Amino acid sequence: MLRALLVEDEPLAARRLTSLLLKHAAPLELLGPAESVAQAVALLRAGPAPDVLFLDIHLADGLSFELFEQVAVTCPVIFTTAYDQYALRAFKVNSVDYLLKPIDEAELVAALSKLRQRLEPDFGTKSSVSSTKSAAETSAPALDAVTVAALLQQLRQPAPAASYKSQFVVRVGEHLKVVPVEQVAYFFSLEKTTLLQSTDGRKYVVDYTLEQLENVLDPGQFFRLNRAFLARQAAIQDIIHYTNSRLQTVLHPAPPASEGPVLVSREKVSVFKSWLDR
User: Fold this and answer.
1) How many domains does the chain have?
2) Euclidean distance between CA atoms 259 and 239, whole angstroms
């Protein structure tokens, strides 16, 4: 029985990973998913201890590496991330295993095979195939304090401005149109589609998830308000205190009425205030 803890704040990504694990890692006991550093820390402290940790990088309340500063993690860790050249560079420099999102089924199967080889002594099923491999081939590197500190330092460094997207190419009928980032008010998800809301009131479909957009847009200009909205600061016309310590944002142009009030997720309120007051 493989016990896996999922730390992932994107419901679609969590469901896909869960489905693939149930298909390829049975018998399996799933813990979580935890959607924040705080939830992951609570689950790790409460037990039972997982055999493997699938860890997204960017969570609702910060970088997932911060949980290593709060609790001892002794099991193997496989990081999952949308394409982020800075994150991948940090992983390669520190020899840390990762899977790119959306997770490829074949790559996950390969990662699970490597994980099984590492865990086989514990399960008492060491195979002749794995016994011919060296320790370097079958063991993931340990995430010691030095490695974690190095990763945190690299990931917290702002990426060069040149690495941020400056424009988006969208389709309008049979034509292609270039929308400069300066003309973007916000992005939002609607019925499994990501839409770009321009400052002139037009909407365009873009081939990005909100999580991917977070990695290619200047974080000084854009903030992920909640699971459905990623807004440019200039588009936030007003901020209103809402119930349960949450905040409501008034965006311009106004989102579809069907979306209801655009709230800042409760766990992001303090980060949002700091972002505004930087």
Assistant:
1) 2
2) 17
